[in-house]
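Subgroup meeting minutes
Present: P.N., E.W., G.H.
Scribe: E.W.

1. P.N. recapped why we're keeping a running log of single-chain structure predictions: easier to compare across weeks, and new members can see raw inputs and outputs side by side.
2. G.H. added today's entry (98 aa).
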Amino acid sequence: MKRRTFVRPEAQTDIREAARWYEDREPGVGLRFLRELRSSLQHINDNPLRFPIIEDDVRRALLHKFPYSIYFVSERDVVSVVAVLHQHQRPGSWKSRR
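Output recorded in log:
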C-alpha cells in the first residue's frame, strides 16, 4: 500500500518561512533547503518507523545540512507532518499543534 504524506498548514508555513529566510540571506540556499526537505520527506514516507518517537506518537527526523527537525505522526496509510522547526529557536512549539 502506498502511503501518502500530508503537510499540515502550520508546517507549510514553517517551511515557507525557513526557505524565505535562507533565500533572503543568499540566493539559492532556500532552494537547497527545500530540496533537502523533500528528500527527508521521501525517506519518512518510505520508512517512518525508523525515526525515533519523541513523545506519544510523534516522531522526529533531522535534516542533515540545515538545523531543522521534521515532526510527524505516522499512521497506516498517511504520514502527517505536524511541524518543521529550527532545532534551537522553538524546538518544543510543535506540542501545541497536536
